[in-house]
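Form 7-S
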Amino acid sequence: MTFPCFPRLRPSSWLLLGCLAAGTVFAAPPPSTTALPAWDELNAAQREQLTAPIRERWDAEPAQRQRMLERARRWQQMTPEERTRAHRGMKRWEHMSPEQRTQARALYRHMRTLPAAEREAFRAKWKSMTSEQKNAWLQANPAPADAGADRRRPRH
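Output:
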């Protein structure tokens, strides 16, 4: 059997086309667009699923409890835009190499010592620098030796 638009397809090609067409039928359903329930509407199992990782970390790392509370307080005070920026920053940090993290620490250490106006001016200058200029600045302003260790436990 041939079709005018596919005059010379082999049987194996038809099989491949059939599998591709069937793949769309068996693909995972699209994410639900229905609204998820409010916290008070979650059942006990759903609440447990959400809170278990935090409880495990709380119990496993008593020395980090104060820091966890401080982060929770800061998170509650953030605007939605600030939370979005924080999420982006966390994702970016997770994908950095150890060397890139050291460089970021050096840059952050310098930025936090500047008044707001100077910080914005430095940020604009940094964006206009070439890679070579940025590397030269980082060589001249290294991070402290103890700044290379992550204070958090690694994620698995």
